[in-house]
Amino acid sequence: MDEKVDPILQEVIARNPGESEFHQAVREVLETLGPVLVKYPEFARHKIIERICEPERQIIFRVPWQDDKGQVQINRGFRVEFNSALGPYKGGLRFRASVYLGIIKFLGFEQIFKNALTGMPIGGGKGGSDFDPKGKSNDEIMRFCQSFMTELYRHLGEYTDVPAGDIGVGGREIGYLFGQYKRITNRYESGVLTGKGLEWGGSLVRTEATGYGLIFFVREMLKVRGDDLAGKTCVVSGSGNVAIYAIEKLQELGARVIACSDSDGVLLDEQGIDLEIVKQLKEKERRRIGEYTTLRKHAHYRAKGTIWDIPCQVALPCATQNELTGKDANTLLKNGCIAVAEGANMPTTPEGARTFLAAKIAYGPGKAANAGGVATSALEMQQNACRDAWTFDYTQQKLEAIMKEIHRLCHQTAEEFGMPGNYVIGANIAGFLKVAKAMVALGLV
Ligand code: NDP
Ligand code: 2IT
Q1: How many angstroms separate the first and last alpha carbons of the chain?
Q2: Nearest ligand to residue 210 Cα
Q3: What DSSP line would sit under 30-72, residue for residue?
Q4: Nearest C-alpha to atom 9 of ligand 2 is from which residue?
Q5: Could you say which DSSP state residue 198 is in?
Q6: Which of 112, 215, 241, 345 to mutate to test the pocket of ligand 1 (most atoms within 8 A of CB)?
Q7: Residues 68 and 137 sit within 8 Å (Cβ to Cβ)
Q8: Which of 175, 99, 170 is nearest to 130 (CA)?
Q9: Is there an atom of ligand 2 within 6 Å of 321 CB?
Q10: Catalytic residue among 90, 105, 126, 182
């Protein structure tokens, strides 16, 4: 760690006790910024790093709701509005029992740089709740979303803060949230949320965007190495929104996806994952991935355990933070893995990331590799602003162009800073530079 940057990290840790994921995300960025301060001494003078690490606003609120038995339930809601130098705060909402301030802050911090990399006019933010959607009825989900929005609406707006989905928040939840926002404000303000349904202001390709974008990014990384995805054996963790559409695009490009997972266990289908079954189980029926084996008897399921011991050439963590450890990274390398790209946010532990970088395989960090989701959210905002709806092909072409440009920018920035092929350095520095330059221009606000 650079001697000018280390005291800033220590200060962040001291000021935000107990938020280990936030500390990890800040450390991962700050340890790459030393050379930036040498090249741009004005950033130190303006205390840009210190300011970027302190959210502009943090909102924590009570979310009371009634379950189907009429019992009162209380959850905690969060929205961390991290940085608005480039545009309105933008980032998803996560509903998961494990959510606390440290998770939302790590996600919001990552989002600043990811959003900057997209080249779209969006700042960084994130929110969510410790509400656990598992086992809840549709009515309970609706009542929870309505209560959540009854407090959050006052902080949102198409020019202020624009949430979307993340773990546990998909099209259904965005619908209930938008409905309540519309009712309270008496405004059909489409651009206040993204990930909306196609009938009421959503964009084609938003559902697929994070997964598709991830694969476009992997394709670019392989292209640099004179390689492609055709025939490659792939393992994708998770079986939610990001994982499903990563698998779909991989299959379209001729790759062979043999494994995916959920928080209960790991599914292996050597004949290739049947994506229609996964969609039916996870998107429609909201069931467990293990049930796949009742329909495909030859497939194997094991409860718990790691997915990363399944030999593959391409590994795509698409579930959650810190799901791929240093040990997993070594196992993947031993088994011949040549590319890893992060569909999830911060899925690789610091030790895992160091292992991939030392091995010089193609390693795409989440900030760059999974930026296609939020980029397409910004395309949805564009369509809302001009009351337009683009075709699937046109929107997908835009997404593909954005992912190629993110790859080019990260690759070029890594070279400029003397670390060719290191996309972690490339993504952190390229994202940081855009935000930092804007913050200097906007003065001390
Ligand atoms: P979903 O809720 O649709 O799916 C999440 C998947 O990950 C599920 O299969 C879930 O299993 C699994 N999972 C979640 N938490 C854990 C855990 N603690 N351990 C093991 N498995 C877990 O979410 P998304 O697909 O939208 O999000 C996945 C990741 O991608 C997250 O890190 C998110 O931040 C990131 N991301 C999402 C974007 C988006 O546009 N949606 C954009 C960019 C990044 P189960 O079904 O058992 O809960
Ligand atoms: O982590 C992410 O980039 C997301 N969950 C998507 C955010 C968005 O605003 O589309």
Answers
A1: 28
A2: 1
A3: HTT-HHHHHH-HHHHHTTHHHHHTS-SEEEEEEEEEE-TTS-E
A4: 91
A5: G
A6: 241
A7: yes
A8: 99
A9: no
A10: 126
Hunting for tokens 């229609």 — which residue is that? 276
Residue minimizing CA distance to atom 7 of ligand 1: 319
Q: What is the dihedral of CA 99, 105, 109, 111, to 10 degrees?
A: 40
Query: What separation in Å is there between the alpha carbon of 127 and the centre of ligand 2?
Result: 10
CA distances to 66, 145, 221, 434 from 106, in Å: 30, 23, 26, 19
Tens digit of pLDDT per residue, the chain (445 long)?
A: 889 999 999 999 999 999 999 999 999 999 999 999 999 999 999 999 999 999 999 999 999 999 999 999 999 999 999 999 999 999 999 999 999 999 999 999 999 999 999 999 999 999 999 999 999 999 999 999 999 999 999 999 999 999 999 999 999 999 999 999 999 999 999 999 999 999 999 999 999 999 999 999 999 999 999 999 999 999 999 999 999 999 999 999 999 999 999 999 999 999 999 999 999 999 999 999 999 999 999 999 999 999 999 999 999 999 999 999 999 999 999 999 999 999 999 999 999 999 999 999 999 999 999 999 999 999 999 999 999 999 999 999 999 999 999 999 999 999 999 999 999 999 999 999 999 999 999 999 9
Which structure tokens are listed for 222? Answer: 């392989």
Closest alpha carbon to 307 in 270, 276, 275, 332: 332
Domains of the chain in start order, with CATH, are: 1-54 (no CATH), 56-187 (3.40.50.10860), 209-369 (3.40.50.720)
| C-beta 115 within 6 A of ligand 2 | no
CB 87 within 8 A of CB 159: no
CB 359 within 8 Å of CB 332: no
Beta strands in 175-307 (DSSP E): 233-236, 256-261, 265-268, 300-303
Give the H or E element holding residue 314: strand 314-316
Phi and psi of 209, rounded to 5°? -60, -45
Q: Which residue's entry shows tokens 């979310």? A: 63
pTM for this entry:
0.98
Q: Is 142 helix (H, G, I), strand (E, B) or coil?
A: helix
- Any ligand 2 atom below 6 A from CB of 124: no
Token pair 């959050």 in the structure block, residue: 152
102 with 17: CB under 8 angstroms?
no
